[in-house]
Amino acid sequence: MNESGLIDDELLEASRLSEIGEDAEALELLLRLEPDHPDHATLLCMIGVLASQLGADGMAGDFFRRCLAQNPTDPELLVAAGAGLARSADAAAEGALRLAALSAPDLPPARMHYGAFLVRNGLVEQGLEQLEAARNLDPGPEVRKQLGIAYVIAGRNREAIAELEAASPEDPDARFLLALALIRDADVSSAAEELLPLAEEFAFDGDVQIVLALAFMAEGWEEEAWLSLSRAEAAEIARDPGLVREVEGAFELGPEASRQLLFDAVGPAVLSDRLAVG
Fold this sequence. Notes:
By secondary structure, the protein is mainly alpha-helical. The chain folds into 3 domains: 1-104, Tetratricopeptide repeat domain (Serine Threonine Protein Phosphatase 5, Tetratricopeptide repeat, Alpha Horseshoe); 106-170, Serine Threonine Protein Phosphatase 5, Tetratricopeptide repeat (Alpha Horseshoe); 189-278, no CATH class. It is built from 16 helices and no strands. Helix 3 (41-53) packs parallel to helix 5, helix 7 runs parallel beside helix 9 and helix 15 (241-253) packs antiparallel against helix 16. The mean pLDDT is 93.
């Protein structure tokens, strides 16, 4: 077997390992190959993807940049490396994602990731054009989620709600964003129904628990509201103790006070934070 065929087999084996959840083993396999193939763009990109999945963001960025330094033309490589770099706001992401979208306009991930990048960098209308094109090509759950986020940023809330409702019901981040969009639309009843299944999923996140607590109290679900507030106080991602006391004060005043605090302050602030890191 020639050298090219050997490395292709190893890349396939790494993909198989990753698909069954063995990302660390797959990464180890590819890192053994890298010293002998330091300019192999696909190898470098796959190492970046696996490192990212394992939380090694610095390592991932290094390999994505090395991949792009080989000047790949494969749009799937450009998308993977560009999207990986976009997560860390690396300037190299833009060129890779733009080239992918221009060279493969019928590839939904290329249009989706480029559109999401543009939106998050303030070019909202241009980004929406790319995301709407991606939806027309493939109205899958991730495309609908990214388009929903873009509509939220654009202030097109009813369209955002429709897209986020079409996103995967198994995606807790999409469901939470949907609830926040519903709160912005003053529909706390529907928001509370979306939030109820998320209580344990986001037990570690004080932001989420504060939103849950206020939405539940606004609906008169006192037991659930107090439980979420206690989770907010104990969360790994803790909230300002002053805000917790303010929520307690709203609880004492009743559902309408909780509703107003949610609508006027907490909902918009948490939505802004989520969009900044989303």
